[in-house]
Amino acid sequence: MPRWTGGETAAAQRLHHYLWETDAVARYFETRNGMLGGDYSTKFSPWLAHGCITPRQIWSELQRYEKQRVKNKSTYWVVFELTWRDFFRFFCMKYGNQIFFEGGAKDMDVPWRRDRNLIQRWKDGMTGMPLVDANMRELRATGFMSNRGRQNVASYLCLDLGMDWRYGADHFESFLMDHDVTANYGNWNSAAGLTGGRINKFNITKQSNDYDPEGKYIRCWVPELREVPLKYLFEPWKMPLELQERCGCVVGRDYPSPIPTKTLGRPDLPSKPFRGRQSGPGGRKPPRVQNTLERVWRNAGPGGRPLP
Prior knowledge:
Layout: H1 8-21, H2 28-31, H3 45-49, H4 55-68, H5 73-95, H6 116-124, H7 130-142, H8 147-160, H9 165-175, H10 181-191, H11 204-211, H12 216-221, H13 230-233, H14 241-247, H15 292-297
C-alpha cells in the first residue's frame, strides 16, 4: 500500500509514481478490481477528497502520458472514473438533502431493518462471510477499502441483511480516509437500490472466487482462516468438523457462523432477485442501458434525518 501522507507534494508523488515510474496506469483496466497491494488501483482518492490534487491536474498529466507513453483502454478508464466522480456531484445537486433520507434520492418506501447486533457484526468484520469480513477489517485498520470491496459489503448489508443503508454510509463516513459526501451517499443510494434503476445484488461467494481466487486477500485480513483449505475458504461452515479442528478454525468458536440471510434480506425484494449483468426477472435480459453513465451506475460500489 502507498504511504498515506497528506498534502500536495505527496499527491504529486503518487501521481508521478503511478504514471511515470511504474506505468501502472497502462494496466489499470486489468487490475482495478484487485483488493491486495499498492498499485492495483490509482489510490488518488484520499488526496482528491482532501483537495490535495484536482481531477483536472490528473487529467492533464494523463494527457501528457498518453502522448509520450501509451494511450489505451486503461488510460481512458482512469479519466472516465474521474468523470464518474463528477457525476455524483450533479446527482447530489439534483436531489439535495433527499440523498440522506431513509428512502434515498427517489424517496422509496422500504421497510429497512435495524438490528443493532447484526449491524455491529458487519462493522466489526464478524459476519461469517470471509470476503465481507476481510474488507470490513481492512477498513477499520487502514481507513481504506477497494472499490470492489465497497460494492460487496454494501450489497451484503442492504440486500442480504436488509439493514438501513444509512448505518453503512455513516460507518464509511467515519472510517474512510477518502470520504467524499457525494460519492459516499450517492454510491450507498445505488447499492441500496434507491435510485429507481435495477438493483444489483452481489453473490458474495462468487465474488470471492472471481476476485480473490487464491484467497490471499482473505487470509491477509482474516487470520483465523489462514489454515483453511482453499476449497472451503469462501464458505468455511461447509468444512467437516474434523477438518475444522485440524485447521484450528471451528466455525462458531474460532470464527463466526454465517448470519442466516435467508430469513433477512431487503424486505420488499422478491426472494430471488435477478443477478449479474446477463439476466433479468424470469430469465429475461435487463433493458439495454442507454448511455455510459447508466452502465457504470449498475456497477457502482460505495463510501438528513439522524439514524434511529
